[in-house]
Amino acid sequence: MTEPLLSIRDLAVAFRHGGGQETLAVDRVSFDIGTGETVGLVGESGSGKSVTALSILKLLPYPTARHPSGSVVFKGRDLLRLSERDMRRVRGDDITIVFQEPMTSLNPLHTIEKQIGEILLLHRGLTGEPARRRTVEVLAQVGIPDPQSRLGSYPHQLSGGQRQRVMIAMALANEPDLLIADEPTTALDVTVQAQIIELLRDIKKRLGMSLLFITHDLGIVRKIADRVCVMKEGRIVEQGAVERIFAAPEHPYTRALLVAEPKPDPAPPQPDAPMVLETTDLKVWFPIKRGVLRRVVGHIKAVDGVSIALRKGETLGVVGESGSGKTSLGLAILRLISSDGPIVFMGNKLQGLRFREMRPFRRDMQIVFQDPYGSLSPRLSVAEIIKEGLKVHHPRMAERERDERVIRALADVGLDPATRFRFPHEFSGGQRQRIAVARAVVLEPSFVVLDEPTSALDMLIQSQMVDLLRDLQKRRNLTYLFISHDLRVVAALASRLVVMQQGKVVEAGEAAELFRHPKSDYTRALFAAAFNLETAPAGVVAQ
Amino acid sequence: MEARLGAQTPDTTAVGPLGLAVLPAARRVALSPLAMRRWQNFKTNRRGYWSFWIFIVLFVISLGAEFIANDKPLYVRYDGKSYFPVFFTYPETAFGGDFETAADYRDPYVQKLIADKGGSMIWPPIRYSYDTHNLDLPTPAPSPPTWLLSEAQCKPVVERKHLHGCRDLEYNWLGTDDQGRDVLARLIYGFRISVLFGLVLTVVSSIIGVAAGAVQGYFGGWTDLLFQRFIEIWTSVPELYLLLIISSVLVPGFFVLLGILLLFSWVRLVGLVRAEFLRGRNFEYIMAARALGVSNAVIMFRHLLPNAMVATMTFVPFIMSSSVMTLTALDFLGFGLPPGSPSLGELLSQGKANVQAPWLGLTGFFSLALMLSLLIFVGEAVRDAFDPRKTYA
Questions:
Q1: Is the CB of residue B219 less than 8 Å away from at least one CB of chain A?
Q2: Distance CA A532, CA B310 (A)
Q3: B6 to chain A: which residues are within 8 Å by CB?
Q4: What are phi and psi of A501, to 5 degrees?
Q5: Residue pair A284/A502 in contact by the 8 Å Cβ criterion
Q6: Is the pTM of this model over 0.80?
Q7: Is residue B40 within 8 angstroms of chain A, CB to CB?
Q8: How far from each other are the two terminal CA atoms of chain A, in whole angstroms?
Q9: Of residues A455, A452, A436, A443, the one with CA closest to residue A380
Q10: Residue B2 — very low, low, confident or very high, per pLDDT cuts 50/70/90?
Q11: Closest to A69 measured CA to CA, from A4, A9, A7, A16
């Protein structure tokens, strides 16, 4: 490595907002990317890593954003001083970017061919047959099977992983010198994530380009990067070769990140404890209707004959890829979507009860959802949100007592009760998830469904969340149904495990035993992807 | 992350457009930052902001129409006693007259009776009500504004009343209509009735429309399907003709008209609110509320309605201006408020019938134009205020 390809010096980004104040999102950041090198940019959300990446391409909302200082020298030119016209020539040609969300990064109204063709036309003037040939070529490069027939597909006809591959194909179409990948795998399943990372590594090696990889997941960085920059609150607190950072971290924050992995300490299975929940052959089938008369021609079998049993104080982990029916199972058990087959909750048959008849049971069975931004009503204060269940189930409770229960619940989840008059948007993702947990536990339930409660959170926050859930379980003797695709978190909590694929249970048993000796190929593939970021042979998991 | 960068908002006290939704609750210390941001956006639209205040001032003034234009004095001092004719009706005998009928304070005889006992009267600035006929018109009705009259035209009245000239006559600032009633007085009362009618119609039809849209969107399925088809048929009924037919059968009055117009105006918000509810019912916090066992009605009211209110609020000023227009149109055609009521539509139709008296048509035109423009400008500002791109930018 002689001359770096991209050299960032003292880059700062400030955002202006109403009233003339400014926030410094990135504070004098400097790092280099050499030719053929992969640099990992790590940090929690809000640390400024995405803003740094976007300012390389000058994609920030100017003039709201501005650069008080710094230079971004790419091949001897300072990108920050380039005109918008020259900048357009750099974007999509020399430097390209892949975003986090494959669902919204592609235009739903255009075919794959048209979207990749547009880039070829813009920067290389390719049209017609040559453009088509190149498109097929890059699609093959990113591992889209039978690319010729995929040209006319629309984004909605592709799976999440395939869409991300198409995004990468678009980024590769003009053979860029630098590819910026902004959390390209965060929205994907573990198995697909492993595939995409494998792909990026492979392509980088073959094309000899440089890669700037942004993520909050240190495991990925270790797998893919040559050098790592750790960001915190807009600054790079530590950078160095990946082996050095992992072997001998210097900054306390890096050390905290490294030990952030949730510690496995699941509640032991309770073979003699009373049965809390039992389902037999539970089915959630969504009818497919066709034709003028809307005749039912078939079913999408989201949950197809699942029998589970949960005893008091246990945690049952439900794992599987997305679309395997995990969430449908959780919602069906709480009778939030309709289902078939008996559900017995603490000796009561729930199946067939009407909404009103279900109400008394709801106090004992609660749920925490995945998305802490979507699951709290933005227009109610935290106290009102937590109080809502109390109002339904204890209509006669005095207002003061309700307030006391809210305060206790907030203290239980580690939040300052004085903040209860604030609104959800004033809290971070992790704090919001704690509020959602407080809403569930304030009713003192015996059974809680946790629907991917940690997936939307940063690493550090994830392990805090796991500690909190474990602590609550011990103190209140709670029973959890823990749904997740993140096996590291499941391993930390679950006493028993159910592995689901396409609505069916593939494998079930005690967690410790299952982790040691997975029987089916599918389970093995899931474990390999989650713990080692390794891909499975074709056909075992979804692409 | 980007969303959180702009979270701070300047600290100001706020009153909302139309006073809705932003009145701080008693115990809440500060207004929600969102409402404050909206109020700031509303103020940024200078034209709408000023229109809002001008409209409020005009409306408040017209609410006190009885104290501004009335044929009764505000206060009478007679024989050591106080009388308030605006609030109470006194017989003529109370002032030493002959009849048991209500006193006509414009009558020179009554005025003389009061003056003779050393009494005094305090009059409102305009001494006509909307239905007062000016009996001393210098020209045949419709009579032009007094300041446009020549001395020759005034002469007969001036001589009969022993005055010096036109200047001493009781002024009709905007002239009179074809029955000798003061146009300015009728304008003030007419403005009030138009705005009140528009407000009531808007509020009632919004409530019905929001409720209907909410039920359709929240429950979906067959409820939604049937309701939607019904609305499609309902809206394809030719509205104005039906209104004409109904109002020729029923005796039109304020509330009858309100009911008739309501038949059709409630539909307008339904689609909007329905769409908001359809979108909103899949939010995770709605699912969370259902998991808590919260009832449908509470979910709709507490969790979903606030979302739909943004779209609704944006539409309200425009619904209001169109309500005012519909009433005016019916009045213009003669199917509106009962004869004799002050109404802008009737003023316009008089202007059409009396082309030689341009003050009628011009007054009607300019006052309607002003009122509707103000409402549209306010509507634009409200739309800006609730614009999510501006609110969350």
A1: no
A2: 48
A3: 15, 17-18
A4: -145, 130
A5: no
A6: no
A7: yes
A8: 36
A9: A436
A10: very low
A11: A9
